[in-house]
Amino acid sequence: MLKTPNSPLSDAAAAPAPRAEQRPLTLTTHGIVREDPYHWLRAENWQEVMRAPDTLDPAIRAYLEAENAHLEAGMADTKGLQETLFSEMKGRIKEDDSSVPMADGPYAYGFAYVAGGQHPRLVRMARETAERGGEAEEILIDGDKEASGKAYFRLGGASHSPDHSRLAWAFDDKGSEFYTLLVRDLASGRDLDQRIEDTGGGGVWSACGRYLFYVRLDDNHRPSRLFRHEVGTDPAGDVLVYEEADPGFFMGIGKTQSGRFLTIDIHDHETSEVRLIPADVPLEAPLTVAPRATGTEYSVEDDGGDTLLLLTNHGGAEDFRIMSLPLAELRAGAGPDAWRDVVPHREGRLILSFTCYAKHMVRLEREDGLPRIVVRRIADGLEHAIAFDEEAYSLGLTDGYEFNTNRIRFSYSSMTTPAQVFDYDMETRERTLRKTQEVPSGHDPHAYVTRRLQVPAGDGETVPVSLLYRKDTPLDGSAPCLLYGYGSYGITIPASFNTNCLSLVDRGFVYAIAHIRGGKDKGFRWYRDGRRQAKMNTFTDFIAAARHLADEGFTSPNRIVAQGGSAGGMLMGAVVNMAPEAFGGIIAEVPFVDVLNTMLDDTLPLTPPEWPEWGNPVASQDDYRTIAAYSPYDNVTSQAYPPILAVGGLTDPRVTYWEPAKWVARLRERRSNEAALFLKTNMEAGHGGASGRFDRLKEVALVYAFALKVAGATG
After folding, report:
1. Positive or negative torsion for Cα 652, 656, 659, 665
2. Known catalytic residue: 687?
3. Which listed residue (566, 594, 623, 631) is catalytic?
4. How buried is 39 (Cβ within 10 angstroms: 0-12 exposed, 13-18 middle, 19+ buried)?
5. What is 131-151 written as a DSSP string?
């Protein structure tokens, strides 16, 4: 049941809702006509706004601020609840937390927080000190100090030079993800005078430490040019190493685990190309491993000797395989036909990533929805797996800095088990627990239940759903439920430990994650069956999960609050158009809801690279019709909608602020009821919301207060 207009969750119960002006605009594509009266909310100078938010059109700013005021009025009665939620969530964070330092030669590097601090410190210590469990001896970057006086601040990548004398580090102080790159002299603790602006967020060193390679973003926020900077010189003279002419491809710079090669990674969502630069010959022209071929993906490591190793779907290996190629053959012009199997393709076993060390190769893979780590000894091919017994869990693998080592590091958690960090000896198979996540306010894992359901979808598939709830939660349909989903780009949402959601679970919520098509939870086919022409499966899977949870007594439809962000926000917009009666409320964070208009505008940062994911409605009428059939903004109709909270960021380059703004304006115009409809635009942040760890918790507290209000559980 939907809330009635006179309920506490009615727009009519708050201050008068803003009404965005309609400015008629007719658009025609492929002979199909549509109206977009809220197009004016898209600032003509959006590129400038990314760098200077105060240049936003005053009329647009006034509308966004009016919506923020409406939210403040509508949620005013939850201020005390928000403060309580914030205190609870903050109380579960170890304020002076630190990472387990990662060894590299004479030092070990990590991060640490101070009590009350919003941002991390990057630190290092002597390797021997780290092995004894000692504390950091040297602060390399003090995040709180660097953030002082800034409304927004986020550290980007940081990498130390091979001789440990310098640190390349980056920061973003607008939320627009245009990072400033600096080089710090670690002996003096001072940055060199040269600032490199508009970078992608980090740099990679040559073996000699004289050169730093980085990617620069263009005015449309595309990572299109790779530069080589000689430390100590004016960045204006940096050498252009490679420029990607195709706006449909992303580009990044990395390094193989051995440190022998710098890797230029050029890719979209289905095609990749890698170029190599010898780290010890940094002025050498890049060598292409294999020219891009549509639909073929690969990534590259080397064995420290004469052989390249490639993780690829070449040859129809949908769930990927690992192959090899002698460097001599590559230099002689050999292509993919010369690649040889090392780990053959096996359908249903998706190889997610791999790393090559001096004596071992390690891969992270997923089968039957669960991850595992497999260690392979290079000398004889002997393999063994690291796996766990819980129904649902999360497993992460950290590459580390070193190549000639028998030790790797991995992390484990589940929805009831706090994160644990292990060091693992690949020869002796000994696990050493290095850290267990502390919950200062206390956590009893035995008070909770985690389960994995298999929900039947309409076409005969089964959709995994991970659940967390207290043992004393009644499963008679009375419990409220927060149902989270994403379902795009092949991204799998792990069933990991989340201290924030305990504030809902401890108030009687069932917390659920729907592992819907569009992710890779059940192999690559799970992704293939939830993209482009098959995108509708993503939405119907999520609706099926919601209805199954209600049918089985975990909750009831009017008590399900659905949540998703970014592409998951698009999911929220689509399912609430398709089945509003299945949900009691919707939380859409930085929601990609104006899909059709965005995919038709090739000047926007992510549009050309996203065409392989969604389709190209500019070139294809079929793709246009596919997207138009689900694009949330274009499918708002005159029907009763449940309460909705939409959240955006003014400087967000991924999902531009006007997408949620236009969507909320159209919902107000067309819906047939007056359930609460709120838009919050963070005027000083981008895609990730507030940058400080405690400021971010305040945003989570607002979202959870909305969920509790929808469920009638604010007491």
Report:
1. positive
2. yes
3. 566
4. middle
5. HTT----EEEEEHHHHHTT-S
